[in-house]
């Protein structure tokens, strides 16, 4: 007869003790002190409905992505200096089916029109808004990303997958014009765009500051000619004419919405007028950590705005080891229906602990954006897909913060329209943590939908339950159904 394996026996005993201790805790419940010290912070106050882009896609003839209980997720489908050579639209075309299957509801493309730097430009120095890679201009026919035909094919394929497509609109400035005598400056300026190859949206010095309407607007960028949106010619070609930029992009190119670049450079009424006349989802890049300023811009532009306040708080919280900072004010807390959250973009990549940051934005309110390289190259795609699924299926309702200190953060989504919501537990420490928390569920069996914890506890009659979280990780709990 073999001797018993002492290590195996001890491990089995410890396992039994671990689960029985947890079972005993469940029977005993949280202490009166724990309950007394609990301070639930109800962050948002609304009816609980999810973020909407204005195009619900609640049905699908292709069996692909449809609007989910938690709303949608956006993919920033590029990064700075994607490979040149005119193949990017084709590359994205190979991705959209998998993205749709993962639950991505929209893609944000880089500026699609011909720019001054021709085949090497990322598009932020626009010359001809109607040259999508189909005119020989600025040293190339195709843009850095490809041809018009390839762009149209990408948009069509994305729509087949029930994915919306957002265009990056650079309206503050232009580049690549010809020299002309400028009567407003008394100098020669590169403001003659009457010879653009498309023949559409001709511009002269009269359409740029300084001009007959004034010396400047809210901001200029990089020394480029600064479009004067107050001039009738600019307004007509950007958003009023049926064959102008906005309506052509929407009705002919079939874009569903807009990301507006550098909106600090012009007044919010510009985006408001665009949205009124053109329609579609819109989000502005107002690069500012001041939540008051973000809210002011979003309200006056009648647009969503990137939540830079959230971005900088996450950076300080996750990398500075102070998760209590997640109690601070953010745009999604002010107005979750106008907040687009993100962890990284093509301009800024400061957050080191990205997986925890994605766990945060994909369980909280707002419209979360995933960065291409984070998803396709740098992070664990299976974990990202799991968080996308959790966002779409479980992240519903208003938000309440249950606990926050340097190392731990626990929040509750309170559910909506029969969906139970969730509890997210983020742990920035190097050891397992566990806590009693108040839920919205009575006598309900719950589980961690990330699979990071194997516990399957049952909430008590008073809705309290004990949950756990792995080191430097997260767990997301909801009713086991």
From TrEMBL:
Active site: 261 (nucleophile), 285 (proton donor)
CDD domains (alphabetical): AmyAc_arch_bac_plant_AmyA
GO biological process: carbohydrate metabolic process
Signal sequence interval, chain numbering: 1-23
Pfam family, one: Alpha-amy_C_pro
Annotated residues for binding of Ca(2+): 172
Coiled coil (UniProt feature): none
Residue span, Glycosyl hydrolase family 13 catalytic domain: 72-388
UniProtKB keywords: Calcium, Carbohydrate metabolism, Glycosidase, Hydrolase, Metal-binding, Signal
Names of required cofactors: Ca(2+)
InterPro entries: A-amylase_thermo, Alpha-amylase_C_pro, Alpha_amylase, GH, GH13_cat_dom, Glyco_hydro_b
PANTHER family, alphabetized: ALPHA-AMYLASE
Family: Belongs to the glycosyl hydrolase 13 family.
Identification of the protein by name: Alpha-amylase
Organism: Flavobacterium gillisiae
